[in-house]
Amino acid sequence: METRRYRAEDLGPLARTGALAFGGSVADWEKYYVENPRVDLDLVYVLEEDGGVRATATVLPLEAFVDGEAAPMGGIAAVSAHPAYRRRGYAGELMRALLRAMREREMHLSMLWPFAHDFYRVYGWELAGESIAYTFKPTDLPTSPEQKRVRAYEEEDLPRLMALLEEEASGYPCCVRRGEGRWREVLARESWGGAVYEREGRLEGYILYRMSDWREDREPHRTLAVQELVWGTTGAREALISFLAAQDPLVFEIKHHVSRGELLHPYLRSSYVKAEIEPEFMLRLVDVEGALNLLDRAIAEPLVLEVSDDVTEENAGSYTVGNGEVVRGAEAAEKVTLDVRQLAQLYAGYLPARQLARHGLIEPGSPEALELLEALFPVGDPWVYPTDHF
């Protein structure tokens, strides 16, 4: 058994494995590997045994925002094993290989959307985000006269959309940064549409959406799924929500995912709408010291983090954080003991330190240490726009 990087002759076997594992056609999977702007073939890994491809996994060389700055991040995607060779430990071997590869490339962070949380938790990833999934009738949503400033997206709008998204995305912990290649791929999709809000020559918001085909066996017959709604002003938000409200309620239902910090129902005439909490991405600190050094935080006095990591031994140990630096070793009195998985949840701002302590998932050495940990890792609004899921 050998875990190795992609070779040209692997394309056919990987495409067939992808089609068997996830659906779609072999041709579509070949395009995924050779035409996808986010795929680097040098980061596609293959597990081979007896001369045949048994399993594969890919690291997407992406960036995610940490304290407003973009940092390298390895996005784990297309993890699959041939159906005839599952439950033999192949995927686990690939996960370990990917962790080593990301450390070598100084990708201190890694994210993924799991098929099963327990599987990836074994290798050090942990749930670090959630969304609120709304299902609306158009009549649930308010209208606004500002809708008159909404128009269809045009190709020359792209630079302004990119700038608007960059500004908004940088405020969300772990939000994936989108490159121009990904933008153009998304906007070229036949089933997608876009509209912008423009006032006095300034583009202040936009919406990307996908409309389903007509289904005679259900009512409403079609779904408008919001892929992305980005607004920089109140007027833009009101106008784009009004755009959704203007759809025919006999034809459309509206589906829209938002971050937990951007709830919609409190601002509606009636809050009795369908809203469901859905788990989002898992986060892994591939290199704890490198990840901590990405933070731009200040606390009153230094704090020691005693980190355990049962997969990547190099991460296990003490880190003293404070005074704008990270020092390997215990060089302060106050200490918190925690696993790399809970450190990922704190790092993303997903769960409060006090709540993790209450559940027995972290061990602060004193009340003062817990207060320092809360200051170091405040609760945030971790979020990745659905357009950038992988």
Break the fold down into its secondary structure elements and pairings.
Layout: E1 2-5, H1 11-22, H2 26-35, E2 44-49, E3 52-66, E4 69-81, H3 90-104, E5 109-112, H4 117-121, E6 126-127, E7 130-136, E8 150-152, H5 158-169, H6 180-187, E9 192-199, E10 202-211, E11 222-231, H7 234-245, E12 252-259, E13 274-279, E14 282-285, H8 288-293, E15 303-308, E16 317-322, E17 325-328, E18 335-339, H9 340-348, H10 353-358, E19 362-364, H11 367-376
Parallel strand pairs: 4-5, 11-12, 15-18
Antiparallel strand pairs: 1-2, 2-3, 3-4, 5-14, 6-14, 7-12, 7-13, 8-9, 9-10, 10-11, 15-16, 16-17, 18-19
Number of strands: 19
The low-pLDDT segments are none
Which range best describes the helical content: under 10%, 10-25%, 25-40%, 40-55%, 55-70% or over 70%? 25-40%
The number of distinct structural domains comes to: 3
Radius of gyration based on Cα positions: 23 Å
N to C succession of SSEs: EHHEEEHEHEEEHHEEEHEEEHEEEEHHEH
Kindly report the average pLDDT value: 97
What's the CATH superfamily of the largest domain, by name?
Answer: Gcn5-related N-acetyltransferase (GNAT)
Beginning-to-end CA distance, first to last residue: 28 Å
- Proportion of beta-strand residues: 25-35%
Please describe the biggest sheet, giving its number of strands, its sense, and whether it closes into a barrel.
7 strands, mixed
Shape: globular
Record the strand order, biggest sheet. Answer: 1-2-3-4-5-14-6
Helix count, per DSSP? 11
For this structure, the CATH topology of the largest domain is Aminopeptidase
The CATH class of the largest domain, by name, is Alpha Beta
- What's the architecture of the largest domain in CATH terms? 3-Layer(aba) Sandwich
